[in-house]
């Protein structure tokens, strides 16, 4: 049984242009002001998931929610809005998750201990619901009511938690001759390139590795921070999400090898030693 | 007579680079902390109105404020800052509007029921007012004082509400041979192209329409959501602002026809049926 | 002796992509919810300091903090994260500053009256501290604890305030034949170009000046606001940070002279009078 929360978090692909995020805040604020005498903290965890990239949104939710206390956690990356995909709310481990049932919530729900109860969002929608903006018209009002203490089952019909959409994690392919093939999953504002792989893929590479993409091959250091290499040089490291990543000290790794973007396949192999090297 | 509010909303063209928005929050926070024991909620409805586009700012304020409760509603899209245009506060329908008197507030004030009282912002400005940043030095302090219960007439001289600047809405031109000419008013972060026209312009178009711009002509489906067409295909629909809009399923409509941008003229006409079609 | 604050401000170069800022808020919120019954206001003063530009970050902190009340003021522009540069907290003039000891805090600390006490951030770090994200793992938790009333010395060893890193302000070079050479320090979202120089550099220029860069020479008006010149024309003025700046009325000054960017050297000289002019 859910009691009230005083925290709502958002992870979306809305960006900040067009006023989408402002609408979410306005809708939550209006409902909370009507129903509750206490404040609800709203945290915009991330509104810059790459557009309509459900997998990256799911990874982002999982990682960012590791730093939040329990609350109502809304995710909206929703290429199927207006179609038959289900809008849902899910109880898991003392948290509530709200969003489209397209796999976006799956990793975060699992990290919280797995879905205990789930409902379709059928009631307390905004009047005049638009076809293409469930964030504002369905998910934000549900989140606001849940934050004020509404029970899950007041929002709509219960559904089998086992029926919720699952999602595959990014795969690391071991290569026959040693090393791995991974995918780029994220490029941040500094140009750091994050791979869909944990720290262990770096442990077999020694202190210098080759990175091979469709754009060519580059030999880089394997280290632990930007400052391990000279300004302008590249380094493979474990980033702050505990993922393998490529960075350039005071530069943009995303511009290496003709450009690295989410989805690109990348091979990481141990660099051959120069003849005569120790 | 205005009593205190605990909500301040912002719609501006400041963007988030340069610290302009941070300044607004700092100024409001400092005044509220001095004058009041209660919290004021600040909602950044939209800081990405296209630079200096007063008409689009006015439309954005009107639409976003439809989702807020009554508060102090600040708008700043202000190409005339530092000239003789008047800084004003306006009471309308239990809300207070604050901004430049250049038409920006007009649609939102009308939607709230029309201006009942208006004043020039002459007092409670920040000391050392800069010439080019009335958002920080004039509008934010006025909003903070109003949120804490200050009456409109304490801020400056009353002016005739009928003297406030008006603004023309975007015009839909019917075409002689059927269909309409409209203007692009907004492109959002997904590349969706919004027209300055309501849902009715789509009702005469049947299920396929031709879109003609300076860049060429394209035949597209008329539908209700992205998912009505295959990935990469375009569809005319009614968007979440209840405006006619052009979208591409999992793509960017703004890149069609050589690029669609705010201000572009666009003709929407019924697509001719192929010979022998039903 | 520091007591509790209910304000935390941030100036960083994180941008909003990648969820870095969301992490900061989540960490602060979780600690504050654990330790305190009252709300802490978080103000995002600026997350768009140009990446790794410590000097501009320091200027931005100093300017923006002039508009805030006393609080815990976090700055993160940190190219040396993961190296031996020290993470610190500093008491100055009733405010607390938190960030890397690389000069970023220097101007703001001086403006507050100078450092009175300083400590290394050694305790209350997040468990599993990453190598490259001290904003989340070191500075945000320190700020949250300080906002809840923790004393500086509970966070780590005291260090000599005189040992804190200093920073040189941008230099204005007088030119032999009159006028000055300055540096571009900032381009904002409107394309306004701010120089590292105060209002006095404009006072010797008369009403028309020549601007010379590597890209060429341009003659512009010297005025006080955009509206002093026709649409599309450039004007030198004192901007809202009280710095000399170049703007274009309803246009982008940053696109003049082949492009103006932070770091560019710019000469400002009085324009020669036309033959026969008064």
Textual characterization of the structure:
Three copies of one chain form a homotrimer. By secondary structure, chain A is of the alpha+beta class. In chain A, 19% of the residues lie in helices and 28% in strands. Chain A has a seven-stranded mixed beta sheet with strand order 2-1-3-5-4-6-7, sandwiched between helices. In chain A, β9 and β10 (193-195) form a beta hairpin. The longest helix of chain A has 16 residues, at 20-35. The radius of gyration of chain A is 21 Å and the shape is elongated. The model of chain A has no long low-confidence stretch (mean pLDDT 93). The interface between A and B is medium-sized, with 32 and 35 residues.
Q: Layout of helices and strands, plus pairs?
A:
Three copies of one chain form a homotrimer.
Chain A: E1 7-12, H1 20-35, E2 41-46, H2 54-65, E3 72-76, E4 87-92, E5 95-100, H3 106-111, E6 117-120, H4 134-147, E7 158-159, E8 173-174, E9 180-187, E10 193-195, H5 200-203, E11 208-213, E12 216-222, E13 234-238, E14 244-248, E15 265-270
Parallel strand pairs in A: 1-2, 1-3, 3-5, 12-13
Antiparallel strand pairs in A: 4-5, 4-6, 6-7, 8-9, 9-10, 9-15, 10-14, 11-12, 11-15, 13-14
Helix pairs in contact in A: 1-4
């Amino acid at each position: 049984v859910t009691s009230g929360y005083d925290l709502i978090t958002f992870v979306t692909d809305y960006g900040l242009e067009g006023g989408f995020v402002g609408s979410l805040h306005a809708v939550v604020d209006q409902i909370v002001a009507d129903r509750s005498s206490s404040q609800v903290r709203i945290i915009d965890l991330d509104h810059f998931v790459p557009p309509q990239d459900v997998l990256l949104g799911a990874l982002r939710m999982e990682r960012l929610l590791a730093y939040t206390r329990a609350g109502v956690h809304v995710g909206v990356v929703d290429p199927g809005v207006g179609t038959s995909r289900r809008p849902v709310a899910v109880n898991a481990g003392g948290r509530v998750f709200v969003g489209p049932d397209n796999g976006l919530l799956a990793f975060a729900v699992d990290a919280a201990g797995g879905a205990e109860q789930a409902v379709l969002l059928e009631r307390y929608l905004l009047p005049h619901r638009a076809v293409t903006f469930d964030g504002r018209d369905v998910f934000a009002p549900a989140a606001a009511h849940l934050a004020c203490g509404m029970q899950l089952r007041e929002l709509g019909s219960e559904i089998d938690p086992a029926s919720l959409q699952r999602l595959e994690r990014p795969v690391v392919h071991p290569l026959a001759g040693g090393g791995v093939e991974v995918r780029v999953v994220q490029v941040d504002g500094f140009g750091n390139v994050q791979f869909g792989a944990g720290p262990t893929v770096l442990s077999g590479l020694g202190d210098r590795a080759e990175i091979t993409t469709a754009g060519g091959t580059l030999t880089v250091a394997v280290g632990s921070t930007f400052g391990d290499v000279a300004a302008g040089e590249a380094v493979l490291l474990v980033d702050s999400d505990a993922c393998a990543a490529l960075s350039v000290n005071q530069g943009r790794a995303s511009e290496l090898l003709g450009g690295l973007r989410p989805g690109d396949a990348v091979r990481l192999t141990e660099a051959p030693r120069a003849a005569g090297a120790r």
